[in-house]
Amino acid sequence: MSSIIVPDACHIELDHVSVVFGSGAQQVTALSDVSFQIHSNEFVSLLGPSGCGKSTLLRLVADLLQPTRGSIRVAGEEPERARLQRQFGIVFQTPALFDWRTVRHNVELPLELLGTSRKECRRISGELLEMVGLTRFADHYPWQLSGGMQQRVSIARALALDPPLLLMDEPFSALDEFTKEKLQLELLDIKRSTGKTFLFVTHSIPEAVFLSDRIIVLSAHPGQVHSIHSVNLPAERDRELRETEAFYRMMTTIRNCFYEERDPIHVPAHQ
């Protein structure tokens, strides 16, 4: 499987984006003047407390919500056009699988909707189920699977149309720590094998540090970019990395952002 090649190294760009809900006394500013770029093949996490606008940002990129002000580009296009070009897949916190369809048929659903041949559907779903370690569960139903296995099916389905970008909204937050850490390792394997770009929403500092090339820290009320951090850890990451001094040092740097009593940093979009 080969993804669409993005002509520009800048995969996602937000330029002075604000989102305001309601009006008058009921008006709430969810995001204020947010600017940043994400480049191809990066794994970038949006990290912040509840209510800081992480999921709102993801929905803007996914064309599920429109900004009040500012502009957004995905692979050089407006989000609506990028969606129609199938430039991204989405994985939500809840797997949202169809209980009456087998694992294989859940993965094949986007392909079926495009009129892909049965033979090609079977080939692609077979590759993806092997990638996420669910080959022998292909004919099971979602209700027969654990939460972690269901989320693997969701990831495989999001990859079915081979999008160059994967948007993930707290996909592991409902899982136990053991399953979560295993899926984090598997997700990094998928990134290495596919070369895709990831925008990942989380409120977990260890998760963001372990997975990311960069972390965008958001402050709340309204949501703004507080700071952007490069994660200077080895590209090849394993479970032992979590016990290293460098890992703890990076977590401390990120954690300190949430204790600083100062105004958010306005980071230029090109950072």
TrEMBL record:
The family database entries (InterPro entries) matched by this protein are listed as: AAA+_ATPase, ABC_transporter-like_ATP-bd, ABC_transporter-like_CS, ABC_transporter_ATP-bind, P-loop_NTPase
Q: Which residues does the UniProt record annotate as the domain ABC transporter?
A: 12-245
Entries under Pfam families matching the protein: ABC_tran
- Alphabetic keyword roster: ATP-binding, Nucleotide-binding, Transport
Which GO terms of the molecular function aspect are on file?
ATP binding; ATP hydrolysis activity
Q: Which PANTHER family match?
A: ALIPHATIC SULFONATES IMPORT ATP-BINDING PROTEIN SSUB (PTHR42788:SF13), TAURINE IMPORT ATP-BINDING PROTEIN-RELATED (PTHR42788)
This chain belongs to the protein called NitT/TauT family transport system ATP-binding protein
Q: What organism is this sequence from? A: Paenibacillus pabuli
